[in-house]
Amino acid sequence: MDGGQWYDADAGPLVRPYAMTGGRTKPGPHGVRFDLIALVVVDPDGAEAAAESLLGPEHRSLLGLCRAETQSVAELAADADLPVGVVRVLLGDLLEAGHVRVSRPVPPAQLPDERILREVIEGLRAL
Q1: Alpha carbons 38 and 94: distance in angstroms, whole number
Q2: Which among 13, 43, 49, 99 has the fewest CB atoms less than 10 Å away?
Q3: What is the mean pLDDT of the chain?
């Protein structure tokens, strides 16, 4: 910083997180909880494109990231360069408006046994 003036990145974020979420800290009126590994995808049968134009820039940014590929909540926060708490609140808005779908990852108890996976790997190596 020369002469006490801030330039670009030195100034910090232009919009504070509480302003992006309207002061809210919890997603949606239903208290939906988004795990860091929950997967988010744009709902093809969701809200109309006209409704999307009414969204804020952060909401549209998250939708754009989800359109490119299915992403976890943690990936969205990193790619959007937003705090995870803010992303959770914004995703709650998008879910409530019907823009996105959120799926929970497969619980570890339902995943194949590690022994079976090792046998498959050994079988593939033997080919």
Answers
A1: 15
A2: 49
A3: 78
